[in-house]
Every structure is written in structure tokens, then in C-alpha cells.
Amino acid sequence: MNRVAAIARQTALGWLAVLSLSTSLAAQPHQVRDTVTVTAAARPVPFDNLARAVTVLTREQIARLPARSVAELLRYAVGLDVRARAPFGIQSDFSIRGASFGQTLVLVDGVRLNDAQSGHHNGDIPVPIGDIERIEVLQGAGSSLHGADAFGGTINVITRKTVGGASGSLSAGDFGLLQGTMRWAGAGPRLPSLAIEGARSSGFMFARDFGTLATSAGVLAGGTRARLGYVRKEFGANGFYGPSPSREWTDQTLVTIERDPVEIGRWQASAVASYRTHGDRFLWDVRRPGVLESRHRTHAVLATAKLRRALGSRSGVAAGAETGVDWIRSNNLGDHHVARTGLYLEWEQALGPRAVLYPGVRYDRYSSFGSAWSPALSGSLWLAPAVRLRGAAGRAFRIPTFTELYYRDPAHQASGDLRPERAWNLEAGFDWFIGLDWVASATAFRRSERDLIDWVRNTAAERWRTTNIHRLRTTGFELELRRPIGASAFVAADYSRLAADAGRVPFLSKYALDYPRDTFALKASAPLPGAVGLGQRLALVRRSDGRRYWIADARVSRAFRATRLFVEGTNLLDTRYQEIKGVDMPGRWILAGIELGAVRQ
Asked: CA nearest 17: which of 554, 436, 434?
């Protein structure tokens, strides 16, 4: 009863504040259809032409949210399940629409970040939170544009390009938490920018301490932009992958060089080259140093060329080619590499003033797994000035990671005889614009997978082993009521439901059949009178195995000219829960601090 009362109070207080904000801004027009342009597509797509379900978090919205990492920010996207083994983005798995953590594609400024060793490392994003301009989450298959891994959706973290100014912050909180950030940008476009953030904590339980450092730097010269991102983490991994008090060290570096679009006749041409390296050191039992210790280092080189052209006022075409190679050096997995080449083509065709179609196709060739074709078709139709229908169909694929092929420890044994995963995705939905302020959205989808890769075992006494599951069918729907307030704030309520069917499975599944069956959330990032900022999230999650829990997070801040004081808390209801079986999450965690300059305004 006390828990229910606490939930009721939390909801009432937050949404009374939100409704008072809506009332105070009622006289101000908010053209919600003009606030979004999605860039994680073959061509930048304005909101009116979107044919997919999309969530966009802007820098101004991010500034008020009770989140200290990209992983925590992604909890504010519809249909995205963040399964954390630790708070503050130490290690998290991302799942969109029930897809596995390896079936979600992560990009930084459109550059692939997914790691060939393991999808568990896709959350090692080398971007300090203060250097993020916005985050785009595109639900649904994306292999026709981006290639492998985009089963459930695509996450694109876009970094800041602004110049001029300095800012910083300091905060402290429960469990010995200390955190600091700094960002500086030169006053001219040719001067570099630099962002740094770090945090450490003694942990909420034995062998769950952590320390992190992230930095990024960028410079623009003569139409060429160079960027360096780096993140390093050390953390206690007690119970993460087995019963031992393990420890893990990870680091990731991403270097990108991007050429701004140039005109070649009637075409716009651009190019991007990148190098990424990820290190992972894992100690199975800290009580036995040097025993069962794994060291892995992956490298990835990728080059991409893109062409775009408008064909009159009603159509356009985008094409691209990329080539790359991933390789690993490991004392556990061995030394391996895989090379790939890809070509894609997408057409945009307006069918009168109210409809648009996007047919596209991509071809990928791998040195170890053969080739894959990924066709797709999406479109939207305005039935009325305030009602839009949209739909999409597409094929996706994913090749096995090096861990799925070669890993072994006392609890796991990989199999080198794995086939690539393949799936067809279908979705249909509508958006109803209620006045100038609110938008109600609904989307239904189905994903039919073949040869899904999972860790399985027959009994709890056996080791986990990798295998291909013959088929898996996932169906679901998403409902959202949202009020964007320009690009700087929003209030929203959403609900999503999933159901997965693998037929009669004669074994225990570690990942594929663990998903959120029902998720309900109330979310807000809003300015209040008196220079106060509010960020809030209240969520109810019911997982496929019956686990059910409420989570409430909130942040309140007050600005004093160029200074802002804040207090925030996560898991305010002090819920005992596990997002991944066997891995406890912390209870209530409070922190407070001060921000100087432009950080998280």
C-alpha cells in the first residue's frame, strides 16, 4: 500500500506541474509538424514526410532529464528497452521492439559503432553527454540503408557543432558518487572543441564500484570535419555473467573524418572515413587474479561515399557505397577478421501533395558469410490535414559476433557453426495531430526471424552454448500521446506491448525470449515558472517471465543567470528489481550539483 501511495504522489506532483506548464503556454502556438528533421536516413527527412515511427531528443530536452549517460537517455524513447547491468551507462544492452541487443544498430554522426566482438559493447559510446546535439531513434528495419544489425531499429547520436563558450559541472551523491564535466569550444569555426566528463562510485554492493572517463574533440577546416571520441570504463561485474565477483575494463576510440557535401553537376557528394578500436579485459574472479582472464582488442576501418540528387520537386535519389574490415586480437577468441562491401540505393517519390514513397535496396558482401540483399519500402499518406497514415516493410540481417562464434569460459561455450540471422519487418501506423499542440500516434508491427542466434542450454547445470533458433515471430504495438513544446521541451505518455513466439523450444533461452511484455511510461522535460526546470519519468515494466516493477526518476533545477543548481534522483520508489536476470540494480540514488555556463541548460 505504501508503494502504491508513493507512486500516486509521484505521478500527481509531476503531472500537476506538467499540466500547469501546458496551461501557461496554451496561448503560444507550437507547430509540432515543423520541429523535426531526421538525418539517420539516406536523405534528411522533414517531419511531414516521415514514413517511420521516430523519437528525437534534443539538447534542450536532454538538459532537464535525470540521466547521466546515453543509455539512460534512451529510456525516453518509445519501444526501446534498456537492460542495464549497472547504472550510469556502465554496461547496458539496447533492444528496440523486442530485438536482441545485437540487433539494434548504434551510430555516432551516422558512423557505425556496433562492435564485432559483442553487442554488449554497443553501449560504450565515446560521446560525453554534454557534447550531444540530439539523439534520433528510428524504429523498424534499417538494413536497406545501414546494412547489418538494424533489425529492431537504429540509434543515431549526433554531436554538437556549435562554436564559442565554456561550461562545466560538478555533482556528488549516494554511494560515493563524484562526477564532473567540462566543455570548451573556440569562437571560430576553425577552432577546436573539447568535451570531458568523468565519474566514479564506490558502488551500491560488493564488487559493483565503477569509474568512467569520456572525452571528445572536433575541428572543422576547409569543409572537412575531424572528430575524436574516447571512453574508458572500469567496473565491478559481480554476477554479470555468472556467480563470480568479476571485474571488467573497457575502452573505445572512434576517429572520423567527414567531408561536407560538395556539388558535382546536379549531384551532392559527401564522404566519411572512420577508424574504431575497442578494448575489453575481463577477469572472471577478482579473488583469483590472472586465472580465467580474457583480453580482447577489436579494430574497424570503414569508408563511405554518398551521392544525393533532387529530380524536380517531387522526387529524389540517394546512393552510396562503403567498404570496411573488422578484426580482433584475443587470448580467448583468437585472431580473426571479416571484410565487407556494401552498395545501397533509395528513391523518394511524391505521389501528389499528400503521399510519398521510399523504395530502397542494399547489397552486402562479406568475406566469411556470403552476401545479403536488403530491400525495403516505406510511405506515408495524409488522409486529412491532421491525420497521417504510414507504413513500412523491409528485410534485415545480422552476422554472428566473434563472441558468439569463439567464446568459452566456465559458464559458456560458443559454436563456430552459426548462420547469419535474417528477418522481415512489417509495420503500419498513424499520427493524429490534435490542434497545434498534441500528437497521438499508434503503430503495429510484426518481425519474422530465421536462424536467430542465442545462448541456450537444456538444464541449469549445463554451460550456455550458442545456436541458431529456427524461427521467432515478434508482434506488438506502440501508443503515444505527446506534446512537443518547440524543440526544447515535451510531455508524453506511452504504452507498448510485445509478444514473441518461437514455437516449442526444448531448451532454456538466455536472451531471445527475455523482453518487456508491457511498458507504460509518463515522461516530461519542461521549463516551469521561476527559472525552474523539470525532468521526470515514471515507468511500469512487466517482463516476459512475469517480473514486474515500477521505476520513478526525477530532476529539478533552478537557474541563477549562468549558474544552475540541481538535485536529481533515480529509482525514487526504492524498487528492488533486475533488468537482466541475476543482476541486481541499485535502489534509490540521489545526487546534487552545480552547473556553470551552457552545460545542460
From this structure: 554
Query: How many alpha carbons fall within 13 Å on the CB side of residue 231?
Result: 24
DSSP 448-506: EEEEEEEEEESSTTSPEEEEEEEEEEEEEEEEEEEEEETTTEEEEEEEEEEEEE--S--
Flag whether pLDDT at 8 surpasses 60: no
* 478 burial via Cβ count (<10 Å: 0-12, 13-18, 19+): buried
In a domain, 368, yes or no: yes
**pLDDT the model gives residue 30:** 44
Instruction: Please name the helix (run of DSSP H) or strand (run of DSSP E) that holds residue 362, with its range, or none.
Output: strand 355-366
Q: Tell me whether residue 166 is in a domain.
A: yes
- Assigned domain for 601 exists: no
CATH code, 197: 2.40.170.20
> How many C-beta neighbours within 10 Å does residue 222 have?
8
Residue 12 has pLDDT above 60, yes or no: no
Name residue, grid cell 537492460.
Answer: 83
| Number of domains the chain contains | 1
Residue 233 lies inside a defined structural domain of this protein = yes
pLDDT digits (tens, 9 = 90+) for 168-210: 999 999 999 999 999 998 876 677 899 999 999 999 999 999 9
| Residue recorded with cell 575494463 | 249
Range(s) of the domain holding residue 421: 2-596
Cell of 386: 491532421
Residues 194 and 183 sit within 8 Å (Cβ to Cβ): yes
- Residue 39 has a pLDDT of 57
Cell (9 digits) for 140: 523498424
Instruction: Write out the three cell numbers for 474.
Output: 515478434
* More reliable by pLDDT, 109 or 185: 109
Element (H, E) at 144: helix 143-146
Q: How confident is the model at residue 10 (pLDDT cuts 50, 70, 90)?
A: low
Instruction: Compute the Cα dihedral for 451, 452, 456, 458 and give only its sign.
Output: negative
Cβ-contact 553, 561 below 8 angstroms: no
Pairing of strands 166-173, 589-596: antiparallel
pLDDT at 550: 98
Residue 557: pLDDT above 50? yes
Contacts of 242 (CB under 8 A, 6+ apart): 284, 409, 410, 411
d(CA 357, CA 315): 9
- Rounded to whole angstroms, the Cα distance separating 152 from 361 reads 18
Counting Cβ atoms within 10 Å, is residue 152 exposed (0-12), middle (13-18) or buried (19+)?
Answer: buried
pLDDT at 275: 99
3-state class (DSSP) for residue 49: helix
- Does residue 158 contact residue 135 with C-beta atoms inside 8 Å? yes
Report the amino acid identity of residue 575.
T
Q: How far apart are the first and last CA of the chain?
A: 38
Q: How far apart are CA 450 and CA 422, in angstroms?
A: 5
Residue 244 burial (C-beta neighbours within 10 Å; 0-12, 13-18, 19+): buried
